[in-house]
Amino acid sequence: MTITSFGPANLITRTPETHPLTWRLRDDGEPVWLDEYVAKDGYAAARKAFAQQTPDEIVQSVKDSGLKGRGGAGFPTGVKWGLMPKDESLDIRYLLCNADEMEPNTWKDRMLMEQLPHLLVEGMLISARALKAYRGYIFLRGEYVTAAKHLNRAVAEAKAAGLLGKNILGTGFDFELFVHTGAGRYICGEETALINSLEGRRANPRSKPPFPAAVGVWGKPTCVNNVETLCNVPAIVNNGNDWYKSLAREGSEDHGTKLMGFSGKVKNPGIWELPFGLPARELFEDYAGGMRDGFKLKCWQPGGAGTGFLLPEHLDCAFYAGGVAKVGTRMGTGLAMAVDDKVNMVSLLRNMEEFFAQESCGFCTPCRDGLPWSVKMLRALENGQGQPGDIETLLGLVNFLGPGKTFCAHAPGAVEPLGSAIKYFRPEFEAGIAPAARATAGLVPGKAPTIVGA
Questions:
Q1: Is the pLDDT of residue 335 over 70?
Q2: What positions does the domain NADH-ubiquinone oxidoreductase 51kDa subunit iron-sulphur binding occupy (predicted)?
Q3: What SS3 state is found at 4?
Q4: What DSSP line would sit under 352-400, residue for residue?
Q5: Exposure class string for 234-272: b at 16+ Cβ within 10 A, else e
Q6: Which of 397, 252, 255, 271 is nearest to 335 (CA)?
Q7: Tens digits of per-residue pLDDT, 284-304?
């Protein structure tokens, strides 16, 4: 994976003023350990927060900055922090870092944890101070073995330096931090499923309310934030809200920078720290280098497998949550995938829905039964054995499993790419209907059949 900068690849040097997340990265890709991190102004924000700001002032600063969650949902971080109880008698509070990162085509958090583990530790330390949390957990995807090794070393270094543990920086504040590797479930990206797994329970989402801020880990107030979200906190404390807002392109409703990327048959796949609001075409052409020779862009997903497909003309959208919403989908994690002209969309969707069906927790019927049903029909279409009405049934599932109709957001995310693929590439799905069935039903290519009783 590669890390470049604001301009065309490798032309502009990363600086603290323009690249708060990545300016400390080493050119050789090796981790930045404590001594080097401190030499690069590491933990200066923590010292400033502890010496000059009250917990409530830190919360207000993050709220005023406009920082939003970077895991995909985009909920305002300061607002989420403000939901934690004010009652000082509730002295047992938890801060959880969601580092599960099971979203296909997404690896941004992995880069931060493997190469800048102390940035996450510092972000959690400041956040814990703001939330008055005495203990934190980094809930890490089990397959991220290198990240676990580097985070555990960073935690040990910070503790030895008096930056974790008891009486941090002589303030009387105590904070213990632990790395917890999960068993590998996509559903743990949902914060209450993550909490259940951390407690040793089955990773099922919980009914809300109560929300984790009131009843979280072991029944205590809990705040859950994504890796990249927490890594933004030190720079906001150090440089202020106006600076943070100024990083985004004009017109963007999201503030700051974002780790963005492109995978697929592009010339230069990788991750870059870029300002919100740049045209997606700039990300695709200037950073990812466009498609490799011999391939054409057929469609693309803006932020992981749970986001809808877009066409090449949609690359002109502004790449932030609101800009992507205007062309019909979500920004998600911000790591896009290019689909080339040699890919069959039915096969691609069958592969995706198999993943989502396997990763369903099985709690609610629409998700538990609907996703395997979609796989069965997609497999038939892929093999040229589909039946008239299969496409309409798939579209019905897209509706029945949509937002607000299942217990959590797993199923809506699973069917969003399916609905968009049928919308833009319906002939490829129609081609999978068995010839005999097509003739019997009198199907005309490109025209939906009439369903009796519909």
A1: yes
A2: 346-391
A3: strand
A4: HHHHHHHH----SHHHHHHHHHHHHHHHHHHTT-B-TTHHHHHHHHHHH
A5: bbbbbbebeebbebbbeebebbbbbbbbbbbbbeebbbb
A6: 271
A7: 999 999 999 999 999 999 999
